[in-house]
Amino acid sequence: MPNRVAQFDLVEAAKEVMAAQGFETDFPPEAKRQLAELDSSPPSISPAAGFPDLRSLVWSSIDNDTSRDLDQIEVAEQLSAGQVRLLIGIADVDAFVPRSSPIDQYAQKQTTTVYTGVRIFPMLPEQLSTGATSLLEGADRLALVIEFVVNDDGTVASGDIYRALVQNHAQLTYEGVGAWLEGRGETPPKVAASSQLEQQLELQDRVARALNQQRHQQGALDLETSEVHAVFFHDQVVGVAQEEKNRATQLIEDFMIAANGVVARRLRSVPSIRRIVKTPERWDRIVQLAAGLGTQLPPQADARALNDFLARQRTADPDHFPDLSLSIIKLLGPGEYVLERPADPGQGHFGLAVEDYTHSTAPNRRFADVVTQRIIKSEIGRTSAPYSEAELSTIAANCTAKGDAARKVEREMSKRIAAVAMSGRVGEKFDAIVTGVTPRGTFVRVLKPHVEGLLARGAEGLDVGDKLGVKLVRTDPQRGYIDFERA
């Protein structure tokens, strides 16, 4: 087994899983020719283009440590009466990728960048998504600016959208900024070197917390799932580590939700694509699940009551809370993209407790955001609509289907990566918790590292939530299997 595991090619496995889910794994020749033409004749980016020049503002980005496909930058301005003006700059992908061009056709088919843990399969060529259309530090860029005012209670007072020239002054990371904001780490060097940037981030953090509090008062769900990433040493997977949320990740999430709301409201008068999570059809099962944990939920779907229950459970049983969250997420049902016409009643996003929501802030990674960007630009420029209702409906359905497929790819690869990472630990003992009891078997999640597997022996009498000791007895990277026995 050790030799076979050592030779297991995770990148090749990723390609196979991608293909099985209907994804391409390379760009066609015509897209590569278009990219070469863009390299030789890129769009003009200068004040002469007639757009507002906002490059002097202290813009910054916060993203993963290794991210180069930067979709958004942020800057804030303190106003009177406790109000704050927020500006979110979004990469102007459409300026480089005309509609129906070969690159656009490829992006429309893929609909999303897929992250497999060992290789990224980008929706756009990396020369664009991590280069010309990425809001990289120090680079002059075209952007779509979403501007809005936030009151001190976290409500959004007004909004506007326009094109502008911008420049990212500091490319920062979630871990660095999060540790500093939470008082568990040193000030990031770029922040320490600029009092303006330090004040900016402190102001942004304050506004984000107000936005977050307002959403949760309206019933936004505070869910948590365990996500892990591969740990590499000399290009070999040697382990997995849990992804940790912090104040910086929450800041960006709150800003993007607010910005997407501004965009959705701007597009109420035209056909557009919305991202929705319907009121859960399986609310009765959520009620049963809560009752089993000592809480009586209302018979009709109530996001605020559900979130109050989740908050109590997070405190009462933090070890099992990610598994409860995952159960709730499954019962809520998947999000989907839909066509929304001006006369249609808004379906909203149950989990976020918002009525108006679309995807517009990640055009380097999601095709729905590119489509929304084109619709916004047609509204700003008072030009004809770039898509018919029939085209938008078809695009929305494909984005939903490919989004589901991408999650399947990521889950399949997560299992294989975990099997490779754990292959050298056969015989070791771990603390675990039972996460599922099904006709297929009893499943457990190891607490450190966060990996899941089948309890192949010793499952008698166990139920979901039980804690126990387990021993790793087998791994199979080809099928993504990890087997334990009761220790």
Structural class: alpha+beta
The total of helices stands at 14
Question: Spans of 5+ residues with little confidence (pLDDT < 50)?
Answer: 1-5
Q: What general outline do the C-alpha atoms trace? A: globular
Order of helices and strands: HHHEEEHEEHEEHHHEEHEHHHEHHEEEEE
Summed up, the domain count is 3
Q: Quote the average pLDDT.
A: 90
Please indicate the percent range of residues in DSSP E strands (runs of 2 or more).
15-25%
C-alpha Rg, in Å? 23 Å
Helix content: 25-40%
**How would a crystallographer describe the biggest sheet?**
5 strands, mixed
The end-to-end distance, rounded to whole angstroms, is 22 Å
The total beta strand count reads 16
Order of strands side by side in the largest beta sheet? 1-7-6-3-2
Please describe what this structure looks like.
- It is a single chain.
- The chain has 487 residues and is α+β, with helices and mostly antiparallel strands.
- It folds into 3 domains: 359 residues, no CATH class; 51 residues, no CATH class; 61 residues, OB fold (Dihydrolipoamide Acetyltransferase, E2P) (Beta Barrel), CATH 2.40.50.140.
- The chain has 14 helices and 16 strands.
- The strands form 5 sheets. It has a 5-stranded mixed β-sheet, with helices on both faces. It has a 5-stranded mixed beta barrel with strand order 12-13-14-16-15.
- Helix 3 crosses helix 4.
- The longest helix is centred in the C-terminal third of the chain and has 34 residues.
- The protein is globular and about 70 Å long.
- The N terminus is likely disordered.
